[in-house]
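Sequence in, structure out.
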Amino acid sequence: MKVKTILVSQPEPSSEKSPYSRLREKHKLTVNFRPFIHVEGHSGKEVRQQKIDFNNFQNIILTSRNAVDHFFRLCKEMRYAVPDSTKYFCQSEAVAYYLQKYVVYRKRKIYVGERSIKDLESTFKKFSKESYLFPTSDILKPEVPEFLDKIKLNWQRAILYRTVVSDLSDLRDVYYDILVFFSPSGIESLFKNFPDFKQNNTRIAVYGNTTTKAAEDAGLKINIKAPTAESPSMTMAIENYVEQVNK
């Protein structure tokens, strides 16, 4: 069956030059965006209940823009003035660049991993006697905590925000040829919103191994996978599929 409509379970890209725009124009597709999950911040009271005191940490580990936003939101709410001496360890250039929203870059000590926080192992070890705060959501993959424990860092997790299922009830009678997922939480949201969901002729696109497993565990037939050697991005994977079925 030909593909005409696609729903991507993420916010719409802000750039008009998004790969999805090109996909839409090239193949004359309807591509809509709708976050299946969203983030809600914890309050200062909820953070204090975790026995977290920002004063006790010289360093902050940041692995996402959400972590950046909610750390500085809570600093303001809790009237905590972040010392100029605080060091920031960022998972990627994107996170470090986003940090400029809150700090004057040239006046702060910011360390950046090329692709992951593990790239900073030698830098962490230079400050191994210092304490590290790791702001996260309620959902956390084990890779980073396992790495921090492996290098024997003095760190503490602070859950500053949570992932919440979005209300999709207005989509109950709307059907798409392809649904695109990027996380297990997206799959969970689909079935929480629509417990009686039947895949029928809907094609399912998934990104990453954990999303693939969640889809399979939910009994979904996966039609499109990324990343692969042939399709390193989701848009490439969708385009390859569309070119096959829309001949």
